[in-house]
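Researcher: Please translate sequence to structure tokens.
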Amino acid sequence: MDESVVVSPDWLAARLDDPAVRIVDVRDAWEYDGIGHIPGAVNVPFDSYRDESDVDRGTLPGAEAFADLLGEAGIDADDTIVTYDDTHGVFAARFMLTALEYGHDDVRLLDGDYSAWNREYETTSEVPEIESTTYEPDPLSPEESPLVGYDAVVDALERDAVFVDTREREEFEEARLPGAVRFDWREVVDDETRRLKPEAELEDLLAEHGITPDREIVLYCNTARRISHTYVVLKALGYETVHFYEGSLTEWLANDGEVESGPVASE
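Model: Translation complete:
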């Protein structure tokens, strides 16, 4: 796995004293305070960087609002951010995608989650001292961004793109984009270790669903949370043409986009 995208607990443990590596815990404040956290981690709860008030914009909080959060957390634009949660990384992956979208160059997902870390390394309830910064966002241009909107998705349906639905079976059977394949985002996680499955196993698993590096990939779910995790995994495996439908099925249905329903033979 590409360590510029996903890092192991061992990698992070060796860098706990590095001031340029900033650890972001995206769990609720009560979990961060009451259960404990990775030493040195700051708390940026999931709800603070997710805005569901405007369907047209998906759930991104806006560049300035996100920059304020990072500044309050004492993070500089040139820091290496490592983010984690306690839900196999799905909420942390959403933080990572948001940070990348607003121009933070070096942000990585911890392979595993808090529970996986806690099996091997110490945790703490001590809150680090934070000196706030003035964080200047640098949002990606539409050409640079992996995010795509409704019109781009309509166009992609006319091409040989693989539409990947990362939701559960019941959701998929109720309504899905035409020709989509279902790939539950949790399939990449080893239930025992709580970490990602070995790289070769992941590649085989994805290939079984027709999700291969030579294809154009379009990811969607309901509100773009679950696809964040799948996006990070694909990028860590070296996939290059991966589009992220931020509006996902919520926007698609709001625009009366064509859908299919019912079970699929391969399911």
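Researcher: Any highlights?
Model: Residues 90-101 form the longest helix (12 residues).
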